[in-house]
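question for whoever is on the cluster today: can someone run the full assembly for these? two chains, 631 residues total. i dont have access anymore since they changed the login thing
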Amino acid sequence: MNYRKTYLGVLVACGLAIGGAAAAEMPSATMLANTCFGCHGPKGNSMGPATPTIAGLSAEYFIETMEGYKSGEIPSTIMGRIAKGYSEDEIKLMAGYFSRQKFDRASKNQKTDPKLAKKGAKLHKKYCEKCHEEGGRSSEDDAGILAGQWMPYLRYTLSDYLSGKREMTKKMKKKVHALKEKKGDEGFEQLLHFYGSQK
Amino acid sequence: MNKINRRNFLKLTGGVVAMGSLGYAGFAIGGASKKVVVVGGGIGGATAARYIKMGDDSIEVILIEPNKNYYTCFMSNEVLSGVRSLDSIRFDYEGLRKAGVKVIHDIVIDVDANGRIVKTASGDTIHYDRCIVSPGIDFRWDTIDGYDAKVAETIPHAWKAGPQTVTLRKQLEAMRDGGTVIIAAPPNPFRCPPGPYERASQIAYYLKQHKPKSKILILDPKDKFSKFGLFTAGWKKHYGYGTGNSLIEWISGAKGGKVEGLDVRTRTVKALVQDFKGDVLNIIPAQKAGKIAHIAGLADKSGWCPVDLKTFESRIHKNIHVIGDAAIQKPLPKSGYAANSEAKVCAAAVVALLNGKAVPQPSYVNTCYSILAPDDGMSVAMVYNYANGKINKIKGAGGLTPGYDKTTMDMRRREVDYAHSWFNNITKDVFG
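^ ran it for u. tokens below:
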């Protein structure tokens, strides 16, 4: 331990770039969360059109997702590169911060088709509600908030699940496949309009 | 208010902070005013003003900015290609006013560090406890013979968005098919390192649709630039780069790309070994910190402002902080996202210092998108910490969008959507 400390000290003295957590004091939750707003919106409420709102997510879901980006288990354009910049403890602090913010639904800012949404509501009830509780509104189910989320994000995520790029839980896999068999791609589109339109 | 006492107090807190003490519980400035003057209402200044009010509403925050509207430099290249309107990159200061910031439209002509006073063109003198200077960039007009601020009205740099963005767009629209657009890229360091190359991509996109016989010539004093591999691969994919029919040609420093002079009448750019005649000229000169930074004596010999990287307080003048492109903030780049990130770190430090508390530990990030074509975007990102008096890149984090061989066009298209979301979110964060 002492050896390690000395070793790191030497590295710093030499001016080499080192992994953050070992040498730096930990920033506050607010300081860390501040770094997210430029892409995810003030306090994590995204102005869209594609970047998801992260305000109001459960801490558990936030941590799981960040760790998934970090390991590459969850495919991403940029989040993998960014998640690797934060330690486990820092992610926990950020998770706490965002879980305390209110999720503002994007429904007023995106166009949805009420007919599709109506059909989607029925599909949600049948295939999704068990895990994505309260019409996809709940964060307490630790399954992410779907209701009022930006639709392009939902569409990308769904497409990654369907293509196999992102792994589904067993339960989800079963339901998604059942829905695909019964309703095809149309069914998913209806679901997206349902979630996107939820106020 | 007894100035000497307060100055001693600030000296004392400064000293305590330098030692890294954990704070000063119970030591408050009883009844004292807490006043911050922010000079410049760009990305850095507007963010800092809002975040100070959010951090401590009892601090009086005055922002002084000459213009009633701010046009973002980021996404202004999409105005040049016609993908986006000028209106969409225009912002005002109503959001700041709603947040309790007093916005004054005036020009700051001096910052007196000893008297802690800001002087304006209209004759106001405003006292501050702490001043945040966020002046952006100014140009080194003396580096290109025949080019100056007046000439730039007709041969634009368009490196501050607004009227010159419009001028350049109109010139592109008026240009004949088969014309040559010359972009003279600046030497390092400059605002928005990928900017000139994204600009070339966006103009190429416009020409490809409307004037396919035309050509863009980038004259560059450098041999490499930001996102080099991604840009050149993108140009190959979309604009025929490297073929005889390419819409974009890049002449590096080694090949004589450095521009030394300009003949306005014949629209001829004099590069190191050869002259080039263009139909539309876009000359982006070498840069330095914004004018007021030099007047206030905040810049060093490099032309940029040395700062403490934990507080962004000037290393030259106490109680004045410098943020954004004007500061020497390496390894943070001179980007809008970095300015926004620096402003939040600076705001938190200023709030702490004015309340006699320890300066909080910073965290910084940069995320920068470039759009090659409407369905092809890319990004560079980095997360940074503060240790041992320096800003450090977090090992293993950040980096570039993968090349075409390591990703899919679906993912590259998503980056365009995320770039546009980035724009909507950062501007909301900055201007409210």
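summary bc i know u wont read the tokens: Chain A has eleven helices and no strands. Confidence is low (pLDDT under 50) at residues 1-22 of chain A.
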